[in-house]
Amino acid sequence: MTQLNKQWKLKARPIGEPSADTWDYVEAEIPSPADGQILVKVQYVSLDPAMRGWLNDAKSYIEPVQIGDVMRAGTVGQVIQSKHDAFAVGDFVVGHNGVQQYALSDGKGMHKVDPKLAPLSYYLGVLGMPGMTGYFGLLKSGEPKSGETVVISGAAGAVGGLVGQIAKIKGCTVVGIAGGKEKCQFLIDELGFDAAIDYKNENVRKALKQTCPKGVDVFFDNVGGDILDDVLTRINFKARIVICGAISQYNNTRPVKGPSNYLSLLVNRARMEGIVVFDNAKEYPVAMQEIGGWIKSGQMKAKEHIVEGIETFPDTLMMLFKGQNFGKLILKVGE
Ligand code: NAP
Predict the structure, then answer these.
(1) For a tag site, which of 2, 26, 38, 84 has the least CB within 10 Å?
(2) CA 76 to CA 115: how far, in whole Å?
(3) Which 3 state secondary structure label does DSSP give 204?
(4) What is the pTM of this model?
(5) For residue 1, what pLDDT is reported?
(6) How far is it, in rounded angstroms, from Cα 76 to Cα 70?
(7) Is 196 close to ligand 1, i.e. is its CB under 6 Å away?
(8) Local structure of residue 259 (DSSP, 8 states)
(9) Would you state the pLDDT for residue 133?
């Protein structure tokens, strides 16, 4: 039987949550590389909240995915054919190869990775885009100092879990906000957070008062909405608020809910700053080396949530927005 390339393409731009109507499942012929191209057999596809934003026909830090295109996604896989001088058959590469099992590439944006140094899936998580986001977002924008209090929303996720662990390494008191008892317990027992707030079952404002008696110096926000407003009531003089994401708002059919407590920035001479991971691309090797060292020494843990089967893509993607992923969400699409 001829092997086919299973792909997910964008069929229609969703209003609100993506649904079955958003996607086209296609089985196409596996292409052959032309001169200057490689054929990559994809093993893992990264599922990221940002993918929801890429479906909107709106100005952003990156072009929207076009209707009819294979859905954009970070991937890791192996070069199985090469007509490119810089890549050999057998090389492992990360890059945006999309939600498909085989991808042609001209090598632009492809980076070789070594599966002997770390499991391949780590290059989509702690050693990949979420890892770089947490590392640079916290250290460059959050500027945590030993003894300060750092609060993180979306704390049990790919970015949040890493941010909290780095803040602990830097000598901070760390409080995570996450959904559900199990995730909160994990933050304290496994990742070494000082406290955790279960926003689904606790009053966040009250819990912040209890867990951050000295106020909040750094807030790393992955969630936005009400949680951002709640934390704004507890910030200290010269606090830094890192706007990494606002997942609570991504599927809104109404305008994004902005923070009504923003004048707390004025009162506290505090700053709120947005970050985009790609701005630090030149420095990724520095971060990868340091994070790799922390993992090796046992100072940092990388939790992954791997789902098998490219067919499951639409449902698996939605796990991010339902809080059903526990760690970096990855789709395994090939061996
Ligand atoms: P993740 O945290 O692993 O997964 C998403 C998590 O968000 C879910 O597990 C869920 O956790 C939480 N969530 C979903 N809906 C929510 C809601 N309505 N209210 C509160 N929490 C909700 O995802 P990630 O990859 O690490 O990304 C985290 C954030 O970073 C996202 O906002 C993403 O867009 C952003 N990001 C930004 C950049 C950048 O360059 N700026 C780069 C990468 C990621 P609970 O079970 O705890 O609710």
Answers:
(1) 2
(2) 10
(3) helix
(4) 0.97
(5) 61
(6) 16
(7) no
(8) -
(9) 98
